[in-house]
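Model it.
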Amino acid sequence: MTHARQPLALFDLDGTLADTAHRQHHLERRPRDWDAFFAAAPEDPPLAEGLALLRATAEECEIQYLTGRPERCRADTEDWLARQGLPAGRIWMRRDDDRRPARRTKLQLLTAIARDREIRMLVDDDLLVCLEAQRAGFRVVRADWAAPAPELRDAQERQGRT
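Modeled.
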C-alpha cells in the first residue's frame, strides 16, 4: 500500500513522544528562557509509551508529526526523530511568529491536512488540543503517559510557544 492511500496518524512531540521534564526549569523562571528551553530539546529522552504507539500505528498509517514547536526548531526535531529510529514523516510546525494557543494552531493545521487526506487519529498530550480536535470530528488519543507540566501547559495555551 502506498503512503498516498494510507490514512494519516499525526503525533505531537513534546509530552507525547519526547519527555520535556529536564527542560521545564527554563519556563519556571521569569522571564522565561525560550531559547534555552528549545535549545535543550535535542536532549529529550523518548517516552516509551508514545514510541510504542507510534510504531504500532505505523503498520497501518502513514506517520506525520503535528507539533507546536516553532519552525526554527526543525533541524533539531528532524535529528531527534531520526535518533529515535522513527519514520521521517512530514513535520507540521508553527511559524516562528505564531503565538496563538496550541489548540487553535493545531486545529487549523488538522483541518487543512484533512482536506486532502484521511486522518485516522491525532495523538497529543494537551487536553485543550484534544478537546478541540474531538469537537471538530477528529479521532483523538490523549497521551497521558508523561508527568503533567503546568508551565508547559501555560506555554501551549496562553503564550502560544509550543
